[in-house]
Amino acid sequence: MKIPALIKRNVALFSLSQSFTGAGMQFSYGFGPLMVVSLTDSPSLAGLSVGLVGVSRFLVAYPMGKITDAYGRKPGIYLGLSLALAGSLTLGLSMMQHSIAIFVAGLLMFGMGMNGAQQMRVAVTDMFPASMRAQALGYLALGSLLSLLLSPLMVKFADMLSTTTGIDPLGLPWFFLPVLIIGGMAIVNLVKPDPKTIGMNLGNYWPEIPKGVAVEKKAPAPFSARKLLADPSIRLAIISNCAATGNMSIVMVLTSLVLHEHGHSLIAIAISHTFHSAGMFAFTIPLGKLADRMGRSRIMFPGVFVSLIGAGLVAFTPTMITVTIGTFLVGLGWAAANVAATAFIADRVTTAERGRAIGVNDSFAGASTIFAAFVTGPLIGIAGLPATGVTAVLLAVLPFILRIVSGPMK
């Protein structure tokens, strides 16, 4: 099917907004562990930053989905980006004040904001029929790929500026983000009509879809997370996404600490994380198309397996090249699992429920991140960096065990 011009325009706007706002999440994962170590002088607390991102995701995903199901996708996205803006300023201030308390408050705000803005994913799935839904997520991720060009440049500029201002180079990049976030909000404002309206009336926007089939009832049916989770296939999709997310959360902490331990600079660490982010976003369009053509599970499970291989490389190989390849593979595996799982869940619910359904998925993913952070710091302190790599690999094995027990997805 040919994508209508209005849908193309809206997706392009969302993708452009992502290109403005996406750099911040790279900072939180790439520099967050180093900021914690700098503020606490305790490597065993390095996983705190990833844990806070997980907590923020767990807290905000379902409530934000409820807001966007009730009021439309754009209000929820505005709210998320506003929180992210306040959080970015607070994170910069935490390094100036050398305060772990301010850091915790700032990262919780920033994480809730950026995870709330992930309702862009719901918005994009609203605007496409099921046969094109996974690749639609890929189009959105293209904006995140463009943001990769900004991150190293911002770090380089902050590193140069810190020598003249005396401000910690880990704090300065956070003060640059509000300009980009405000730009992203202005771009979202251009999206019309609200994607939820499009999703409930797909036949009005896609001429090839029969209107009588593609118009949903305005009154939403009662939504129940328990009913959603009663479906074994949805549980398997959620657990696969959780495994890839938890694995990635551990590896993103490991990447920073391993490279730092071997004497690499902040710029080198940023470049390595850029490759990781490229794995997360550069191939989402072809992965989405494959998921649409071949089926969700045929992309989701290989994605989890690829993330398992990447985790092993990061944890058990010594050079920057192999660590960077490993973190790239973890990002690639996560992309396949996340796109396929999100599209699968979006297929199973109506537009009026989709924000909450994907919110349930994101809440569980947040919980897996919290678990990853909880075990990462103590394991580093007790058994060293490789032990956390073993945990990351074991997490990625869980979906395969569940699939054997429960059978294939239907």
Offer a quick outline of the entry:
This protein is mainly alpha-helical and 410 residues long. It has helices spanning 5-21, 23-30, 32-40, 48-71, 73-97, 100-116, 119-126, 133-147, 150-165, 172-188, 195-199, 202-205, 225-229, 232-261, 266-281, 284-294, 297-316, 320-347, 351-383, 385-406. It has a single domain, classed as Growth Hormone, Chain: A.
Which features does this protein show?
single chain; globular; 80% helix; 410 residues; 20 helices; Growth Hormone, Chain: A
Description:
There is one protein chain. This protein is 80% helix and 0% strand. The protein has one domain (5-406): Growth Hormone, Chain: A (Up-down Bundle), CATH 1.20.1250. It is built from 20 helices and no strands. Helix 4 runs parallel beside helix 6. With 410 residues, it is mainly alpha-helical.
What is the CA-CA span between the terminal residues?
Answer: 25 Å
| CATH class membership | Mainly Alpha
User: What is the name of the CATH topology?
Assistant: Growth Hormone, Chain: A
Query: Could you give the count of β-strands?
Result: 0
The biggest beta sheet is recorded as: none
Average pLDDT: 86
Helices and strands: which structural class?
Answer: mainly alpha
Percentage beta strand:
under 5%
